[in-house]
Design a protein that fits this description.
Number of strands: 9
Strand content: 25-35%
Radius of gyration: 20 Å
Number of helices: 5
Helix content: 25-40%
Length: 195
């Protein structure tokens, strides 16, 4: 399943083309945290982890586990925001003024990583190439903190584990305003289209 982020008419769109191969917390860790024995609930727990991770990534604007995204823009901006954190840039393709598709040489661009964002910029002292009007530029990037749960920040893992307990532990339900937490109400926020 692809995740799509449309950011506006003049802004780039971002599509996740390859989802993570593993979860940011292992099923074994989740089951130990929840004190669940046996494998009867494995599928349900896994689905909950995926939902919590989707909401978490949407909330913080970051990718936890290695995944591939395609960013498409009408033209090269001064700095192109990419899904964060970027592990590597696979390719940058564009159509030159003659209409020929080109793959940009890695020496022609640089990745600027900041604490909460990753931007693509031309190499120092260089400018973006001229492109054909009405033809997109496409950037493929690999994002995330790493390929394994051990690479994910511990606070993010704890958040996921806490949300699992919140959903499954009946003792915590009396402490909440309603049986459904605010989290459940917001699960679909990342799937909504905003005009």
């Amino acid at each position: 399943m692809s995740l799509i982020i449309e950011t506006g008419a003049d802004l780039p769109s971002m599509v996740r083309v390859t989802p993570p191969a593993v979860l940011p917390v292992s099923l074994a860790m989740a089951k130990a945290n929840m004190r669940v024995d046996g494998d009867d609930m494995d599928a349900l727990i896994t689905t909950w982890i995926k939902g919590i991770v989707a909401a978490l990534e949407h909330e913080i604007g970051q990718c936890l586990i290695e995944q591939t995204w395609r960013v498409t823009a009408d033209s090269f901006p001064a700095a192109l925001s990419l899904p964060h954190p970027v592990m590597s840039i696979t390719s940058i393709k564009y159509f030159d003024v003659d209409g020929t598709e080109q793959t940009m040489d890695p020496a022609a661009y640089r990745l600027v990583k900041m604490r909460y964002r990753s931007d693509l910029m031309p190499a120092r002292g260089a400018a973006w190439p001229e492109t054909m009007a009405d033809r997109d530029i496409t950037v493929e990037v690999v994002c995330g903190y790493g390929a394994a749960p051990a690479d994910v920040p511990e606070n993010a893992q704890l958040y996921i584990l806490a949300k699992l307990i919140e959903q499954f532990d009946p003792a915590t339900r009396m402490e909440r305003d309603t049986v459904q937490s605010a989290f459940v109400d917001r699960l679909l926020d990342a799937c909504r289209s905003y005009a």
